[in-house]
Amino acid sequence: MPTLAVAGAYLHNKTVVEELLRRRLPDWSIVRPGDAGAREACVAVCWGQPHDTWQQLPDVRMVHSIGAGVDGLVRDPGLPDVPICRVIDQAQAQRLTEYVLWGTLTYHRGFDIAARNQRALLWQRPANRAASEVVVGVMGLGEIGAHMAKTLAAHGYSVRGWSRSARSLEGIETFAGAEGLGAFLDGVEVLICVLPLTDETEGILSRDLFNRLTPGAKLIHVGRGPHFVEADVLEALESGQLGGVLVDVFPVEPLPADNALWRHPLVMVTPHMAAVMPMPDVVSQIAENCERLLAGEPLLRTVERASGY
Ligand code: NAP
C-alpha cells in the first residue's frame, strides 16, 4: 500500500486534510512523520513542516505544498531533491482578487478617509476621481496576479504589471525584471504585491521602492510577510510617502499584540484572510499528482526549484 505523510506545524486543519485524503485515496496509507510505517512514505504533503521532517521520511519521491506558495519548502535546507508540486486554484485567485479590488476601491473612492472622518464627526467629501485616472501597479503576474490585473482593468483602472520575465496581457502595461522596475513604479498610486517569496523578492517593499511611487501612494500587500521592511513602511507612512497600507501577511503570524501596525491609523491589518482555499479542491489536486506519481505520468503544477517559486 503506498504511503503519504502529512507534515505541517502550521496546518491547523491537519485532521480534516487527512480525512479528505483518506476518502480520495482509499488505497493509500495516510500517516504523519513519526507514525508507524511513515518511513516508507513516497509522498509528503507539507505546510510549515518542522526541520526534522526529512530524516523521518527517507523514501519521499514527491513533495506537495498544500498552498500556492512554496517558499517554506524551497527554503528548507533539508528538502530532498525530488519534484515539488503546488496547488493552483481559480477560486483562490478569485478570492485574492476580491480582496485587492476592495482595497483599491477603498483607496480610490476615499472610503478609508470617510471612515476616519466619521470617527471625528467630520462631514467632508473625499476627492471623486475616475478609475481610469488611478494607476494601479501589480507586482507579480502569475496565476493570481494576472487575474487581479485583468479584473482591475475591467473595472476601469489604469493597470500596470511587473514580473520576472516579459509577459503580455491585453489591456495591461507590462514591465519585467530589475531593469523594468523603476518605470513600472513611476506614477503608481496603488501598489499591489502578490509576489512569491524568494531570495530576490525578500525585503523588496522597502524605502527605495516606496520613494519611487507617487507621494501618498497606497500599498496593498498579499504576498508574504518578509517582502516588506516594517521600519521602512512605518517611516514612509510618517513622511507621507505612503498614504495607507492594507496588509494581510506578516513575518510573524498571528501579528504580535505589541506590533505598531495594529494601532497605526493609516494601516488596515487583516489576519491572512485574503484567500482560503476550499480544502476538497486542494486535496483533489494532491491526489491527482499521487496517482500520476504511481503511474509514472508527468506531475502537474510542478515548481522550478532554481527560481524559488
Ligand atoms: P506564480 O504563478 O508562481 O507567479 C509569480 C509571479 O511573480 C510571476 O509573474 C513571476 O514572474 C513573478 N516574480 C517572481 N519573482 C520575481 C522577481 N524577482 N521579480 C519580478 N517578478 C517576479 O504565483 P501565484 O500563484 O500567482 O502566487 C503568488 C504568491 O501569492 C504566492 O507565492 C504567495 O506568496 C502569495 N499568496 C498569498 C495568499 C494570501 O492569502 N495572502 C494566498 C495565496 C498566495 P514570471 O511571470 O516571470 O515567472
Automatic annotation (TrEMBL):
Query: One Pfam family for this entry, by name?
Result: 2-Hacid_dh_C
Q: Does the keyword Nucleotide-binding apply?
A: no
Keywords of the record: NAD, Oxidoreductase
Pinpoint the D-isomer specific 2-hydroxyacid dehydrogenase NAD-binding domain residues. Answer: 105-274
Tell me yes or no: is Oxidoreductase among this UniProt entry's keywords. yes
Q: Would you tell me the protein name for this molecule?
A: Glyoxylate/hydroxypyruvate reductase A
